[in-house]
Each structure stands twice: as structure tokens, then as C-alpha cells.
Design goal:
The protein is an alpha+beta fold and 217 residues long. Helices cover 31% and strands 22% of the residues. InterPro entries: Anti-sigma_ChrR, Anti_sigma_zinc_sf, ChrR-like_cupin_dom, RmlC-like_jellyroll, RmlC_Cupin_sf.
Length: 217
């Protein structure tokens, strides 16, 4: 069961179709496995449809808005009583499988640092400014301590990792920025594989590893 989710603002942007393709893919993969977030997106979609159907001259005041939300919340709660199980998926969603045309464990991984391997898939998203990468942390392995020069949005596809923010398992969603410093450690068992969208390269912060920053993309 997923424990870490996109925030409400991100789900609103997804519902409105305002996210770039790689960010939308991360949300879609999470939604495939998370009934909680699917119910929120269903609510947002329904609210958007109601608002679109409203006449331009209609007085959409706070009371009307609250009544709409109340009705949608009731319908969503009833639906959740019947549909609480996530969709049955293989190790990764068909949306990603079709793009990669390969099992994620059989990809041509490139060793980057210590226990970390990467595969850059930015080319699969033409005209995108952000970098899109798959990252693999060997089971039981440790990544070097680092922060981020920009925003990093990550979805766990396989395995799990732990850092100072908690434990992140399969299909968990996390967003970090330059205010966050962490040192991920993969749990024993499966290699931890994640899908990440980065607006800027990460920045190593360890005493000795900082010298490697010029070589990190």
C-alpha cells in the first residue's frame, strides 16, 4: 500500500492537464496503484466538469462551491466502499513498459556512483526541458549524500529505500528540492528502481564526494 502521495495542488494540475508529459507519467503510474489519489482525481475531474457546464453568467459563490464539493465527496466515499483495491499490475505499468520495450531489470544500466546505476530516458520525451532518468540503487546499497539544485520528482517502481524522511516503497511518490539533503539507502531484497524527473542536476554534499560534482549531470 502506498504511503507517500502527490500533494493536492499537483493532483489539481494533473486533472487540469497542465503537467508536462514526464510529470504526468509519474502521476499516472502512481494513480494506477493508489485508490486514495484516484478518488481525489475523480473528485477534481467531476468538479471541473460541473464548472465547465455552468453558464458564464452563473453566480459561482462559496456556498455553491461547497455544495458541489460535498456532493462529490459523498459520491467518492460511496465508490471507495466498493472499489478499494488497486489495479492489478506487473512490476511496472504498461504505460512505462510500452515506452521502454524492456523489463526494467534488463535495461542497459550505466554505473554512475558506488551502488547507483542510471539510464537517461529524456529522449523519450521530445521538447521537454527537464531530465528524465531511471535510477537503480543496489539492494542494501547506499547513495552518496546529496541535495538538489532544482526540483526532483521521484516515483518508486521497484523495491524500497529509506532516508531521513522515512521509508519509500513501491509506487510511493516524493518531491525534493534544494532545501532537502538526504542519503538514500536501499532496503534488502530487490534493487530499488525509481523514475525521476529533474529540473537541475543533484549536488553531492559529503566531505569527500563534493569533488565529484563537476562530473554529475
Amino acid at each position: 500500500m502506498t504511503q507517500h502521495h502527490p500533494d493536492t495542488h499537483t493532483l489539481m494540475e494533473y486533472s487540469a492537464g497542465n503537467l508536462s508529459e514526464p510529470y504526468a507519467l509519474c502521476i499516472r503510474l502512481h494513480l494506477d496503484q493508489c485508490a486514495h489519489c484516484r478518488s481525489q482525481v475523480d473528485t477534481l475531474d467531476s468538479l471541473g466538469a460541473v464548472m465547465m457546464e455552468s453558464q458564464p453568467s452563473a453566480d459561482v459563490n462559496d456556498d455553491m462551491f461547497e455544495r458541489i464539493l460535498g456532493r462529490i465527496d459523498t459520491e467518492t466515499a460511496t465508490d471507495l466502499e466498493v472499489h478499494t483495491e488497486p489495479k492489478v499490475q506487473t512490476a511496472y505499468s504498461n504505460a512505462l513498459e510500452r515506452m521502454l520495450e524492456s523489463d526494467i531489470n534488463d535495461l542497459p544500466w550505466k554505473r554512475q556512483l558506488a551502488d547507483v546505476s542510471v539510464m537517461d530516458i529524456t529522449h523519450l520525451f521530445p521538447d521537454q526541458h527537464d531530465r528524465v532518468v531511471l535510477q537503480k540503487l543496489t539492494a542494501g546499497g547506499k547513495a552518496l549524500e546529496h541535495t538538489h539544485r532544482g526540483r526532483e520528482t521521484t516515483l518508486v517502481l521497484q523495491g524500497a529505500f529509506a532516508d531521513n524522511n522515512g521509508v519509500f516503497g513501491q509506487w510511493d511518490f516524493v518531491t525534493l528540492d534544494n532545501h532537502d539533503t538526504h542519503k538514500p539507502v536501499a532496503l534488502e531484497g530487490d534493487d530499488c528502481i525509481t523514475l525521476s524527473v529533474l529540473t537541475a542536476p543533484l549536488k553531492l554534499t559529503g566531505t569527500f564526494s563534493r569533488v565529484l560534482n563537476p562530473f554529475i549531470r
